Amino acid sequence: MPPQACIGIEDAQAGIDAINASGMRSVGIGAGLTGAQLLLPSTESLTWPRLSAFWQNV
To answer: How many domains does the chain have?
Structure first.
């Protein structure tokens, strides 16, 4: 599966950086992260409808 067909979800800056470097779509969880294509405040905000909308809009 090509990286462009994947979503990476991380709560650490190093993880977001690695996801972006790989070519995957990045979702950051928590405050203080930069570079994530979608940033959510907590895992409570991580829902299938939100991921689906993100997938369709990127």
So the answer is: 1
